[in-house]
């Protein structure tokens, strides 16, 4: 009996994709191998997939490969394109204060690490020169290494954050480390734009509001904030609440989890229709009459 693999086929081996479990949980997986069970009935024909995921549990480590059966119909829904961004609505997380102005992208991800071909792994080198002593020993005086901020996911910082070169590796490092929100009074334009392309919310508050958050973060260990994008609010559990502004178009892409390609794919029907009506009539180049061709003479 043919087995429904929801579009999964040998062409997907070696590629990443997103799958949705029946529970509604989303996972990013890498397909390593497909095979069909050769056992007698009733197992005959069941398709198995060797995969690894970005999730760890009590049985498996993050990134470990394991076999899973497609024998249970509708176990997965396979999406055609892996989008590294997740929709952003509301996030609650511990705050880490980086009390520096003009933090540039070369300090976030130094130039010697720009040769990597994927966006994974940049969390380890975020703020590398500040974070490590020679031999990559953690610098105990740098805030990212303070035990009290170990699981922080909200980065609080000062003005002109992300200045310097335009490298997109900087937001890759921020995201890969685990920060989903940055709160600052101002940002360098290119870094600010790149945050939205990578699923990071760079919220902007007034200087006096930033100072208030710094004071509260220093005073209370484990201080956390809830950032509500639909309502455009930043609040703590003590009743403090600040409003922040964001362009509607940027708010939309974060809420939907779209990068530039994902946004374009929302118009794929119109794009296909345009190409079908124009492809047959498009002139790639004009014909050249040889008798007028002089080769520069």
Which secondary-structure class do the elements indicate? alpha+beta
Q: Kindly state the mean pLDDT as a whole number?
A: 79
Specify Rg, calculated over alpha carbons: 25 Å
Reading the helices and strands in chain order gives: EEEEEEHHEEEHEHEHEEEHHH
Explain what this protein looks like in three dimensions:
The structure is a single chain. The protein has helices at residues 105-108, 128-131, 169-177, 189-196, 207-219, 248-256, 260-265, 268-278, and strands at residues 16-21, 26-36, 47-53, 65-69, 76-78, 90-98, 132-133, 137-138, 154-157, 181-184, 201-204, 224-228, 233-235, 241-243. The protein is α+β, with helices and mostly antiparallel strands. The chain has 2 domains: 10-78; 90-261, Aconitase, domain 4. It has a 7-stranded mixed sheet. A 5-stranded antiparallel sheet has the order 4-3-2-1-5, with no helix packed on it. The N and C termini lie far apart (73 Å).
Brief rundown of the structure:
By secondary structure, the protein is an alpha+beta fold.
């Amino acid at each position: 009996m043919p087995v429904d693999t929801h579009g999964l086929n040998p062409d997907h081996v070696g590629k990443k994709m997103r799958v949705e479990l029946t529970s509604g949980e989303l996972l990013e997986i890498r397909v390593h191998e497909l095979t069909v069970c050769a056992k007698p009935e009733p197992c005959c024909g069941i398709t198995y997939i060797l995969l690894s995921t970005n999730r760890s549990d009590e049985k498996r480590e993050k990134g470990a490969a394991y076999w899973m059966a497609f024998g249970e119909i509708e176990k997965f829904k396979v999406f055609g394109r892996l989008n590294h961004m997740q929709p952003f609505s509301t996030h609650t997380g511990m705050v880490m204060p980086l009390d520096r102005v003009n933090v540039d992208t070369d300090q976030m991800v130094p130039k010697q690490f720009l040769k990597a071909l994927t966006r994974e792994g940049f969390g380890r080198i975020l703020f590398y020169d500040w974070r490590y002593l020679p031999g990559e020993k953690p610098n105990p005086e740098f805030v990212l290494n303070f035990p009290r901020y170990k699981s922080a996911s909200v980065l609080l910082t000062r003005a002109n954050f992300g200045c310097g070169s335009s490298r997109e590796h900087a937001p890759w490092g921020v995201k890969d480390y685990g920060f989903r929100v940055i709160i600052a009074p101002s940002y360098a334009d290119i870094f600010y734009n790149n945050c939205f392309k990578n699923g990071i919310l760079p919220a902007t508050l007034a200087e006096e509001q930033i100072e208030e958050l710094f004071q509260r973060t220093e005073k209370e260990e484990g201080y956390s904030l809830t950032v509500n994008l639909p309502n455009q609010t930043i609040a703590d559990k003590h009743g403090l609440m600040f409003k922040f502004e964001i362009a509607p178009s940027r708010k939309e892409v974060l809420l939907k989890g779209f990068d530039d390609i994902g946004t374009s794919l929302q118009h794929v029907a119109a794009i296909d229709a345009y190409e079908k009506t124009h492809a047959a009539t498009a002139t790639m180049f004009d014909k050249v009459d040889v008798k007028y061709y002089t080769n520069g003479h």
